[in-house]
Amino acid sequence: MAVSTVEVRPHSIKLSGQETTNIAPSQASEPSTSLSKRYLTPQANMAPTSYSLSGILLTQGQQQATSVQIASKTLQTVGRELTQVKRTLTQALTHGVSDAMTASLSRSKQGIESTLDNARFDDKRVVDNELKLKLNSADVRHFSIPGLNIGRMSERSEQVRLDFPGHGTVIMQFDGQMDTQSNHDSTVKKLDRSLIPMGMRASLSQDGNIVFQAQESAYIAMQQQVKVTGQGHRFPAGQANTFTVKAEPDGIAELRFDLGSREGIKQSIATVNQHLQQAQSSLQESKHFQSQLNSQMSQLQSQSNLPSATQVNGSLAQFSQQSNDFTSTFRALNAQANVRRHTVVALLK
User: Fold this and answer.
1) pTM of the shown model
2) CB burial class (10 A; 0-12, 13-18, 19+) of residue 233?
3) Residues 6+ apart with CB under 8 A from 332
4) What is the number of helices (H) and of strands (E) in the chain?
5) Per-residue pLDDT reduced to its tens digit, 82-115
6) Are 92 and 101 in contact (CB under 8 A)?
7) Rounded Cα gap, residues 67 and 113, in angstroms
């Protein structure tokens, strides 16, 4: 009697003595080989995550761009308010001063000061008191002390004591020997070094006045007053004399409206015109600066390894495709694992 033998090969399924199923890889998974390598092993063409100089410069550029945008909007607002002030002063010159005009001028000035104070990025003002674009130093004020001029009574030696309320005291020594520019510069440099620990600086203006520099908060804390004691030449000796400091130059905080006479109103209009011209000049400067900044950032973007929006979208599409491949492979493996035991036994008989 002939016996035929048929060999039945299950789909890569083997049973051990403990009837534990060992799943072999499906042929369907071959096209998407090494899923673990593609998902868990870094690709050679993937840029490593790291800090780069171009990336840092791009971040700084974005911060500066934000500061310039804030400054531009502020200057536009201040310009409109100054135009309204000029219109009110012109009406006062033509029709006379009224209480409503005085109140309107007061509100306009308060609005301008509030706008400038709120124009900040990273808690730093971006437009200073003179309506100049200062992205990093708008909180600085400059002022001088009346009578403190390097050329005044230069032939007299004198020791001058300066008391800055809430900050400290410095001694300024005039030697009275040589009336030369180098000697004047040396005197002011010594004063400047003495002021640095107090958070202040000193410099020499072209007209010989000594100009001090302090933070806005410090300037306000001084209440615009300094005590000066001399030896009877430039300043009186004995008890300290209080001097009201003078802003260098005058800015919005020093803006006053003289409505008592036609000449006073005309002078007020002239001052407002100067501020309007400065606001327009600073606005043009901000636009030019922003244009240059955009050009530099575009150049940095092209030189950096930062991915563009198109590259990011391409990477996401590739990841989505690989995710679909993984899903298909998982389903094939799961189908093999779910073969019923009695089916396998029947095939083996």
Assistant:
1) 0.58
2) middle
3) 26, 28, 29
4) 8, 12
5) 999 999 999 999 999 999 999 999 999 999 999 9
6) yes
7) 18
